[in-house]
Amino acid sequence: LIAGSDAQTLGYYSVDDGGKSLYHITDSGTADGGKVIALSGGLYAHLLVKDSVYVEQFGAKGDGSTDDQDAINRAMQSGASTVKFIGGKTYAVKGYETGQAEGSTTGLVETTGIVVPSDTTVDLNFATVKVLPNARQNYNAFTLTGVENIIIKNGTYKNLNIEYDPELKAGNMPLNDIVNKMVILANMYDD
Fold it and tell me: How far is Cα 89 from Cα 164, in angstroms, rounded to an integer?
């Protein structure tokens, strides 16, 4: 590989794992495990983002036990207007959590869940998003704070709540209230 060329991968971890991607090779960059990957010889592979991306292009496995939250968030922040999942897979995520961790004396624990930016369609393609239990048993898979024009469709969820606040304040809202900001949940099923 040389700077200025393009390269295609056949998968993220292995051939045909859903992470097939096209990259542009340069001699500069900051590796982030998704859009930019460090190569040998001081080269960097920059993902050529199209209108849609698959979460596997950012390292999600969808095996039901690996925590895919960071990889999914890298896909959400890629700039693509549609983020896709592969049907039939189960994606485990930590979810959104705030509060005192059980047995902790050091303070609050906070994770973000899947952060969906404005103007994004999340197409689960009939995959399952499963929130891993946390210390408080109080968690949300998707964090939709201060965003508009979101569609989350075609999926099954386990242990799922959705946190959304149209006024940029904290708290949960009933799902029927989030439609006011064009957040649409379509063909979503509770398992």
Answer: 25
Comparing 52-56, 88-92, 98-102, the range with the smallest average pLDDT is 98-102
- Compute φ and ψ for 116, nearest 5 degrees: -100, 120
Residue 97 has what pLDDT? 59
Which DSSP string corresponds to 17-51? SS--EEEEEES-----SSSEEE-GGG-EEEE---S
Residues 6+ apart with CB under 8 A from 156: 124, 126, 127, 128, 129, 188, 189, 190, 191
| Partners of residue 161 on adjacent β-strands | none
Instruction: Using alpha carbons, select from 16, 12, 10, 78 the residue that is nearest to residue 49.
Output: 78
CA distances to 15, 62, 93 from 18, rounded to whole Å, are 8, 10, 18
pTM for this entry: 0.78
